[in-house]
Amino acid sequence: IHCIFNFLVYIVRTSKYENHRNW
């Protein structure tokens, strides 16, 4: 369960970072 949470956080962080970079 913890692994899934970590994975979700990683995806969210990557998406946010990419979005910020794109904009």
Automatic annotation (TrEMBL):
Keyword set includes Protease: yes
Gene Ontology BP terms: proteolysis
Molecular function terms from GO: metallopeptidase activity
Recorded superkingdom: Bacteria
Keyword terms of this UniProt record: Hydrolase, Metalloprotease, Protease
Protein name: CPBP family intramembrane metalloprotease
Organism per entry: Listeria monocytogenes
